[in-house]
């Protein structure tokens, strides 16, 4: 099991870069005070990893919050993603410059291909490789790539992705994909770890929450980390952001980890990476 220590602990990517295993997701947060406050609260609470994307339309706010924080830029792991309509070699290079410009930062810590757009993601990856070699990005990766997407990408590229960010929660584990990523030394990362809030209507986790005197959210996030999966719970509420980071004073037993694994129903909340049209 990968070592889990504290809110600023990290997992090591395949290129030696340390990626904090707990981050703040900002999907659906507005570009103004909502996202700025959320990022500042997270940084104040000890988070050192912020995940955005061009399609979220809040990169300006994220950048402002990071630039005005009392924390050195180099101590914050900043992630963004290239959107589907920007995919392709030259358009990805342009999209990257636009993302940096909106963030008003000199570099990104991680840049991801947001979805595996057929016929485009290999050229998009070549652009990411170029930016990585130029040290504009510390690590490069993908999001929503199934095993066959990864196999195709790896067969046609020089650099193996450092990260694969997937929908991941107790109802959608995709253990085969996790195993494949582990074998290729690709760090697995969760988006929508709370099933977009639906996790709270699953009373099946209430007993575990009671047993450990924790919230259902804390149980799920701790399970993420103990499975070696980086997680980026999204919230714009200060109390929730702080609560989501309160994961380091307990450990789930092997038995309870296995129990949560049995809840898997291969049930997606978001789009299917093999069948999306955006």
Automatic annotation (TrEMBL):
Keywords: NADP, Oxidoreductase
Stored InterPro entries: AKR, Aldo/ket_reductase_CS, NAD(P)_OxRdtase_dom_sf, NADP_OxRdtase_dom
NADP-dependent oxidoreductase domain span: 31-264
Protein family according to the UniProt entry: Belongs to the aldo/keto reductase family.
UniProt name for this protein: Aldo/keto reductase
Organism field: Aquimarina gracilis
């Amino acid at each position: 099991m990968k070592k889990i220590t504290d809110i600023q602990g990290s997992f090591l990517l395949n290129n030696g870069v340390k990626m904090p295993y707990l981050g703040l997701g900002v999907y659906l947060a507005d570009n103004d005070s909502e996202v700025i406050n959320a990022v500042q609260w997270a940084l104040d609470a000890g988070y050192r990893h912020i995940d955005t994307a061009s399609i979220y339309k809040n990169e300006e706010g994220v950048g402002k919050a990071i630039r005005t924080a009392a924390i050195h830029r180099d101590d914050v792991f900043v992630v963004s993603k290239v959107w589907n309509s920007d995919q392709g070699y030259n358009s990805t290079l342009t999209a990257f410059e636009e993302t940096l410009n909106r963030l008003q930062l000199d570099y990104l810590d991680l840049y991801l291909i947001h979805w595996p757009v057929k016929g485009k993601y290999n050229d998009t990856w070549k652009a990411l490789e170029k930016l990585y070699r130029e040290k504009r990005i510390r690590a490069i990766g993908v999001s929503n790539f199934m095993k066959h997407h990864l196999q195709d990408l790896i067969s046609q590229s020089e650099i193996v992705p450092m990260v694969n960010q997937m929908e991941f929660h107790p109802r959608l584990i995709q253990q085969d994909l996790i195993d494949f990523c582990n074998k290729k030394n690709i760090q697995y990362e969760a988006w929508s770890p709370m099933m977009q809030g639906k996790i709270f209507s699953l009373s099946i986790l209430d007993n575990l929450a009671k047993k450990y005197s924790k919230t259902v959210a804390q149980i799920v996030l701790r399970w993420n980390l103990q499975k070696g999966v980086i997680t980026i719970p999204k919230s714009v509420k200060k109390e929730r952001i702080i609560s989501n980071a309160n994961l380091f004073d307990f450990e789930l037993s092997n038995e309870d980890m296995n129990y949560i694994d049995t809840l898997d129903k291969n049930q997606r909340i978001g789009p299917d990476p093999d069948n999306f049209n955006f």
